[in-house]
Amino acid sequence: MGIAAFPDVDIDSSTGDAERNERMSSGNAEADYILGGGFPADSINIIMGHPGSGKTIFAEQLIFHNAGEGRPILYFTTLSEPLPKVVRYLQGFRFFDEMKLGTQVIYEDVGPQLAKEGAPALIPLLKDAIQTLSPKIIVIDSFKAVHDLAPSVAERRRMVYEMTALLTAYGTTAFLLGEYTEDDILLYPEFAVADGILELSRRRLGNRDERYFRVYKLRGSRYLEGAHAFRITDSGLDIYPRLVSPRIPEGYEPASERISMGVGGLDEMLGGGLWRGTTTLLGGPSGAGKTTIGLQFALEGARCGEPTLYMNFQENPTQLMRTIRGLGFDLEEAQAQGLDLVYASPVELQIDSIIVDMFRRIQQRGVRRLVIDALGDLASAATDPQRLHDYLYALVQHFAVSTITSVLNVETKGNTISGNGMQDAMSYLSDNVLLLTVEGEERTRRTLRVLKTRGSAHDTKVREVEISAAGLSILE
To answer: Are residues 55 and 122 in the same domain?
Structure first.
C-alpha cells in the first residue's frame, strides 16, 4: 500500500526537492509517510522499545531495502541476541535477501569483545569498520547494552561524544537500538545527540497485543505526531498512520445536491432526501431496522451507479447476502454496479487498521456513499475514549471534504439516542440524526423520527414504519 492510500494529514508539504532527496527510506511506505519522507541522511537515530516490540525487525527491513550497489550496510550485534539467532529469525521475513547477505549487508557480532574489554572497545571497532568498509548505514543492536557497560556517567558521555564525531565525519547514517523507556530520554546522553527518536511499544489488551509506532523527535522535519498502530507480519511492520482532520480546501462549499435514501417515504421526511456529503447518524435498539435502512441506502447508490462501500461488523457475509437477496436485489448485479461489501469480525477489530483499510477502498474505488454498521463495534476496538473521539471527528470531516454521503448505524439502549458518550458526541458531529424505536406488547410497533437535519426543514412527526419483503418503508 503506497502513500497515496492515506488521507491528507497535516505534515509539511513545503519541503523542497533538495531536502527530500536527502531522505533515506525506512523501507516501509507508512513509516516514511509518518516521518515526512523518511530519515534525514547522515543522521543518528534511536529506535527504542521494550524487548519484543519490533525494533530489530524494523531496522532489518530498513537495511535490506537500502542495500544495493556501492557502500555496504553494517549491522553490529552486541550483548542482546547472539548473531546466529538474529539471522535465523531474519530468514522468516519476505524482505530478507540471501544474495545481499555478507556483501551488501554485513552482520558482525561484537558482543564477545565488548564483554571482555568493556564499552570503550566500541569506538575502535566502529573506526576500523568505517575505515575498512565505509558503510552508508550502521546499526548497533543493542546500543543500550553497550551503554550499560560504561563504568561511569563521564565514560558514557565520552563514548557518545566520540561515536557522534566519528559517524558525522564519515557521512554515515546510524541507528541505535535499545530497550529504553520514555524516562530515559531525559537521562542518557545519546538522546541529546540523536537527530531522530522513535519508539515501538506494545501493550496487552485482553487476548491480544496492541503495538504502536511513535516519533518523539526528528530534527529538521515535520512529522505526523501521535501513536500509530502496527502489526508484525512476514512482510515486516504493517503500520496504520493515525487519522487526523483534513485541510479544508480554499473556496470549499458544501454540495447542493440531494440524494435518495432508497426508503419509501423517508426522503419526504428529510425535505427531499439527504444533502450530498452529509453524515447521518441512525440510532435504534436491536431489531428496529437499522441494517435494513443502511442496506437500502447502499443498494440505492449501486442502482444509481454510485460506488458504495458497506462496512459491516454486525452480520457475517452469508447473513448479509441473504438479507440483500430478500430485499429483491441481485447481489452480483449490485456489486457490478459499484457495491462493495466488507465484513470484519469485531473480535479481532482494531480501529487503526479498519480506518486505513476503509480509506484505501474509498480512494481506490472513488466511493460516493458509505455505511458503517455499527459504530458500537468500532468503539469497542478503541481502547482510549479520546482516541475514539478524535477518529470519529476526523472521519466526519474527511467525508464532508470528499462529498461522501454516509450513514452511521448505532445501537441504542431503549428508545433514546442520548446518555452514551460516543452517541452524544456523534449526535453533534452528524448533519442528520434519525431515531428508530420499537414498542408494543401484543404487536410490535416500529417508529422513526427525524431529530435533526442541518440546513433543511424536516418532518417533526413520529412516523410508524413497516418492514416487509421489500424492505422498510414509512407508513402514511
So the answer is: yes
421 burial (CB, 10 Å; 0-12 / 13-18 / 19+) is exposed
What are the φ and ψ backbone dihedral angles of 425, each rounded to 5 degrees? -65, -45
Domain endpoint, select from 214, 240, 266:
240
Q: Is residue 248 part of a domain?
A: no
Strand 196-205 and strand 208-218: pairing? antiparallel
- Single-letter amino acid, residue 382: A
Q: Which of 240, 269, 287 is the last residue of a domain?
A: 240
- Find all residues with CB under 8 Å of 90, minimum gap 6, and list them: 60, 96
Is the same domain home to 276 and 199? no
Q: Do residues 267 and 273 touch, judged by C-beta distance below 8 A?
A: yes
Residue 323 lies in a domain: yes
CA atoms within 13 A on the CB side of 368: 21
* 233 belongs to a structural domain: yes
Which domain, by its residues, includes 289?
A: 258-474
Residue 158 CB neighbours (<10 A): 16
C-alpha cell at 46: 534511536
How much is the pTM? 0.79
For residues 371 and 308, what is the distance between their CA atoms, to the nearest angstrom? 8
Same domain assignment for residues 268 and 193: no
Is 77 among the domain residues?
Answer: yes
pLDDT digits (tens, 9 = 90+) for 409-449: 998 887 777 656 666 677 778 999 999 999 877 788 999 99
Q: Calculate mean pLDDT across residues 280-286.
A: 92
CATH number of the domain within which 33 lies: 3.40.50.300
Q: How far apart are CA 447 and CA 439, in angstroms?
A: 8
| Total domains in the fold of the chain | 2
Q: pLDDT tens digits, residue range 120-164?
A: 899 999 999 999 999 999 999 989 988 888 888 888 889 999 999
Q: Are residues 152 and 263 in the same domain?
A: no
Ordered alpha helix ranges (H), 344-445: 351-365, 375-380, 385-401, 421-429
User: pLDDT tens digit string along 182-203?
Assistant: 999 998 999 999 999 999 998 8
Question: Which amino acid is it at 78?
Answer: T
The answer to whether the beta carbons of residues 146 and 120 sit under 8 Å apart is no
Shared-domain flag, residues 321 and 424: yes
The span from the CA of 177 to the CA of 92, in Å, is 21
